[in-house]
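Tip: read the tokens left to right.
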């Protein structure tokens, strides 16, 4: 009887011991697993820390690079609030308040340029910005490009609007340079109705703006209003010889109507009007494929393609460099001349001669080939600039060969672009020193 309780007691003790061993083993196992998890987590955190430190070093290096690449603007003149003008430039339109002749340099209004991202407009913006004006560019980018004005983006005096002037625009400006319109035959013939609307409805909208804010208004007209002239050279009092239903009529007649509207607003609403009749112009920032003589010949020569001359090549043209045109536009805007003024270079060349000049300057193996003449292509074109000399003290100064070489350089860089990041930005050719003589 006494052995049974002892046996039971021993079994109980053995069971308790076994349970103790099991529980202790489980506890030790859990602690080991916990410690292993902590070590693994610690190692992971240390790895993340090293990665973050590497990223911080990389970001620091990038910030240093960005600081080195900080945008530097061309040097501009500083004008006080009394002298600074507000200018609007929209798809070849530029606005500015009238400048008394006695304050030609010291009074700087706010300006608007329509078509300011285009070929001519962008060079005009450069000159106005460097003089210290506040410039607003309005452009629908049909032929204009942001790249032409991107060196001014972010500047406190510059603003760029994506706007089609067929729609009204409400701004406070002092002067308006109205350059809005496609200017090369392929561009204005591409959508003739749009060309007509831009030069009629768009011009009315800008004249209405000039009337409302009492801004001086400069209309960028064209030598095309003379059509295929029967008078040579062309003076401003010549009425022209235009085919009103031909392929070029959408541009020629629209510009003639635009001039009529300008003088109607001048007579009826006392809007200060300036009209510039622009002759053939060339220079950097021209479109490669805009179909004009200069761009066609240079592009074909650079690519060793046949240089295409339409007709017999004996038709004549007069070519001016873009900076001369810009000087003429600004002189006219700031003058007291309300009559139309020819802005062009009277140095006349046949198309055949010009093709030979481009071939010689570019080099290469291009041949000059002739194709059928284009309908309504003017036979002779040369401006009489007597009025410009007498009334606005302007005449072209840049030799044609100098300008052509500059343009060839630009086209060569454009052709060699392989990707978007390879920018072909033609920086302003104007400096403050350019205006010291004014």
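Filled-in amino acids:
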């Amino acid at each position: 009887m006494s052995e049974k309780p002892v046996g039971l007691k021993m079994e109980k003790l053995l069971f308790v011991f076994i349970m103790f061993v099991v529980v202790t083993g489980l506890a030790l196992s859990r602690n080991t697993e916990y410690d292993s998890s902590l070590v693994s987590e610690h190692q992971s955190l240390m790895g993340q820390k090293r990665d973050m430190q590497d990223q911080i070093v990389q970001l620091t290096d990038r910030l240093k690079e960005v600081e080195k690449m900080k945008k530097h603007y061309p040097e501009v003149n500083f004008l006080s609030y009394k002298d600074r003008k507000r200018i609007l430039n929209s798809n070849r339109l530029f606005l500015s308040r009238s400048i008394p002749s006695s304050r030609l340099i010291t009074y700087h209004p706010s300006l608007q340029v329509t078509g300011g991202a285009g070929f001519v407009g962008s060079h005009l913006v450069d000159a106005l910005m460097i003089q210290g004006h506040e410039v607003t560019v309005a452009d629908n980018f049909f032929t204009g490009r942001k790249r032409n004005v991107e060196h001014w983006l972010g500047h406190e005096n510059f603003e760029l609007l994506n706007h089609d002037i067929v729609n009204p625009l409400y701004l406070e400006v002092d002067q308006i340079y109205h350059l809005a319109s496609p200017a090369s035959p392929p561009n204005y013939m591409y959508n003739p109705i749009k060309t007509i609307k831009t030069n009629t409805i768009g011009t009315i909208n800008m004249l209405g703006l000039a009337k409302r804010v009492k801004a001086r208004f400069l209309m960028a007209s064209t030598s095309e209003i003379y059509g295929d002239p029967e008078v040579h050279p062309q003076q401003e009092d010549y009425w022209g010889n235009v085919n009103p239903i031909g392929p070029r009529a959408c541009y020629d007649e629209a510009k003639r109507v635009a001039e009529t509207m300008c003088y109607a607003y001048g007579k009826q609403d006392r809007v200060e009007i300036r009209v510039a009749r622009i002759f053939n112009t060339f220079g950097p920032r021209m479109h490669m494929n805009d179909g004009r003589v200069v761009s066609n010949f240079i592009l074909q020569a650079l690519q060793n393609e046949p240089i295409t001359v339409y007709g017999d090549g004996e038709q004549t043209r007069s070519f001016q460099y873009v900076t001369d045109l810009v000087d003429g536009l600004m002189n006219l805007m700031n003058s007291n001349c309300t009559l139309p003024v020819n802005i062009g270079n009277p140095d006349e060349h046949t198309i055949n001669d010009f093709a030979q000049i481009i071939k010689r300057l570019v080099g290469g193996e291009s041949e000059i080939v002739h194709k059928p003449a284009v309908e309504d292509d003017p036979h002779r074109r040369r401006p009489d600039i007597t009025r410009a000399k007498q009334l606005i003290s302007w005449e072209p100064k840049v030799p044609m060969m100098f300008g052509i070489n500059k343009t060839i350089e630009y086209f060569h860089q454009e052709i060699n672009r392989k990707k978007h990041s390879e920018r072909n930005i033609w920086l302003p050719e104007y400096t403050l020193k350019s205006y010291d003589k004014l």
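The longest strand covers residues 216-222. The chain has a mean pLDDT of 84.
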